# Entry
Amino acid sequence: MTNTHYTKVLKQIRHKPAKYEKYLKYNVPRKRKFGRSVHKCRRCGQTSAFIGRYGLNFCRQCFREIAPKIGFKKYS
Ligand SMILES: [Zn+2]
# Structure
């Protein structure tokens, strides 16, 4: 399942005011206090394979890509 932000749809329906209002009223997701969707990768928004340790807040795929840039070294 892909993870898209709900505001992406607003761009498509902004010229239809009635639909726009209806979407904002009924389709905005609830604010979560706990559960998987609380932890999202700050780079891509993915919820699985989340690394929150050391305040990273990346998914493992993004961490792999940017680890050398933010100063992680691979030993061995
Ligand atoms: Zn990510």
Remarks:
- The mean pLDDT is 89.
- Strands lie at 50-51, 58-59.
- The first strand starts at residue 50 and ends at 51.
- The chain has two domains: 1-30, 35-76.
